[in-house]
Specification:
106 residues; mainly beta; Rieske Iron-sulfur Protein; 3-stranded antiparallel sheet; 10 strands; 0% helix; binds FE2/S2 (inorganic) cluster
């Protein structure tokens, strides 16, 4: 599948062991865990809650609304969520964080 590269934030915007709201279109959350950057959809698949308002524990983000946990590496959900979270390939280039977004249908 074709994709386009989009800048999310500066690497220096990230804090070790924490999550930030990095983009609102599409909504993307960025994470820094043990020096590794991850990016997922920022919207919980269980409802309309921003995961950047949640709690990051290792490589799992917990939604602040009903406490579903998602693996930020794979998007795998835990109850009460059943739908996986979208994850994005991340690249850090010259101090900026980029993700590969799927090409939009024309
Ligand atoms: S909205 Fe996230 S767990 Fe319900």
């Amino acid at each position: 599948m074709e994709s386009t590269k989009a800048r999310l934030c500066s690497f220096s915007d990230l804090k070790e062991g924490d999550v930030i709201k990095a983009s609102s279109d599409p909504p993307i959350a960025a994470y820094l865990v043990n020096g590794e950057v991850f990016a997922t959809s920022n919207i919980c698949t269980h409802g309309n809650s921003e995961l950047s308002d949640g709690y990051l524990d290792g490589d799992r983000i917990e939604c602040g609304l009903h406490l579903a946990q998602f693996c930020i590496r794979t998007g795998a959900p835990g109850a009460p969520a059943a739908v996986p979270l979208a994850t994005y390939n991340v690249e850090v280039i010259d101090g900026d964080v980029y993700v590969d977004l799927p090409a939009q249908p024309i």
